[in-house]
Specification:
The chain is of the alpha/beta class. It is about 30% helix and about 25% strand. The N and C termini lie far apart (about 40 Å).
């Protein structure tokens, strides 16, 4: 398997991005991903109980349709906390794209990211859709990845190329996310495309495992979003022998997890105002879930994160966070190792002395720039 830190669309996929006018800055704000061959889909959404209109539309479409042809995503407006009108605006966007492409609106998935509480300018999107469709191309993914960015400093992209039964298969992902990042899931949009032939059950299983080992292992500020979408389309254009299990260890599952983990770590490295990338590994826990709980407690500690920013080796912040995690950590069994803090990448190793399980979580430091960005966000 080869991992490339660049988006290379699989067979049958095209994309485009444009500046429709949603963002006052004039930056790109509308992205389209399209597959000539209708695809099956799998999805994961935020567990926030306040969910944006696009998520509600996607859940409805995933129940109604077996095959999907497009993802339409905008940045600059979250279309969240906008009531029934927000839902109608999201439906209208899918319907407009469906008519333009000559496909059913239920085969369109939608996504939004940006400011909460403002109505989506559906009319602006409607005017932009024809040009967006005309500009679709295999190289358009470079425009699409930029159109979903908000406070991101750089675009997130990764591709895995591998063989299934001697047939080349591609998994490609793009994502946005830099702040308001916390597990289940991070504040993010993530779109993954593959030309693999795979059963719907195997696709869902593989995505669940990939998300759990990537996007659910990162945090920047412990704040959960209302708009998180991970959307995965598989159009079968590669023609490989059908994958009927998504269990860990299969080439497809490994490739999908690798792409998702690359994108997840890019989000942490691009954390708003971040100067450090921190890997927290917790060992000797009774279960993987227990290890992750302790790791997240440390990763979300503002005292720990500011200490790392100041390059202050105050391991007491780690000890206190572990003890407050809800896991019965015993002082005599707890071991902490903190790597050099004058580097970009920081390693924290914690042993609990309770068992044999472990987990890793990724986070960033907390800096004055984070406050500056979020104090003036809207």
């Amino acid at each position: 398997m080869k991992i490339i830190k660049k988006a290379i669309l699989p067979k049958g996929f095209k994309a485009n991005g444009s500046a429709s006018g949603i963002k006052k800055s004039g930056k790109p704000d509308l992205a389209l991903i399209y597959t000539d061959v209708p695809a099956i889909a799998a999805a994961q959404f935020t567990s926030n109980t306040v969910q944006a209109a696009p998520l509600k539309v996607n859940k409805l479409h995933l129940k109604k349709s077996r095959f999907f042809s497009a993802i339409l995503a905008n940045s600059g407006n979250a279309n969240c906390f906008t009531g029934r009108q927000g839902f109608r605006d999201a439906v209208k966007s899918a319907a407009v794209l469906g008519r333009t492409l000559g496909i059913k609106q239920e085969s369109v998935l939608v996504a939004s990211t940006g400011i909460i509480g403002k109505r989506l300018p559906a009319g602006v999107i409607e005017k932009a859709v024809p040009g967006l469709v005309r500009g679709l191309s295999a190289r358009g993914i470079d425009r699409a990845k930029k159109a979903i960015m908000t406070t991101d400093v750089f675009a997130k992209e990764a591709t895995a190329v591998f063989d299934i039964g001697r047939v080349p298969v591609t998994v490609c992902g793009i994502a946005k996310g830099a702040g308001m990042i916390s597990p289940r899931m991070a504040t993010m949009l993530c779109f993954v495309m593959t030309d693999a032939v795979i059963s719907p059950g195997a696709l869902r299983e593989a995505l669940d495992k990939a998300v759990d080992g990537s996007f659910n292992c990162i945090t920047v500020d412990g704040c959960m979003s209302t708009n998180d979408n991970v959307l995965l389309l598989a159009n079968g254009a590669a023609g490989n022998p059908c994958i009927r299990t998504g269990a860990a260890g299969t080439p497809f599952s490994r490739a999908l997890r690798s792409v998702c983990l690359e994108l997840a770590m890019m989000m942490v490295k691009d954390g708003e105002g971040a100067t450090k990338f921190i890997r927290i590994t917790v060992r000797q826990a009774r279960t993987e879930g227990e290890a992750r709980q302790v790791a997240l407690a440390i990763a979300n500690s503002n005292l720990f994160k500011t200490a790392v920013y100041g390059e202050n080796p105050n391991f007491g912040r780690i000890v206190a966070a572990a003890g407050a995690s809800g896991i019965a950590v015993k002082e005599e069994s707890l071991r902490v190792r903190l790597g050099p803090l004058n580097r970009r990448d920081i390693d924290v190793d914690v042993s609990l002395g309770r068992g044999r399980a472990g987990a890793a979580v990724y986070t960033s430091d907390l800096t004055p720039e984070y406050i500056k960005i979020n104090a003036a966000y809207n």
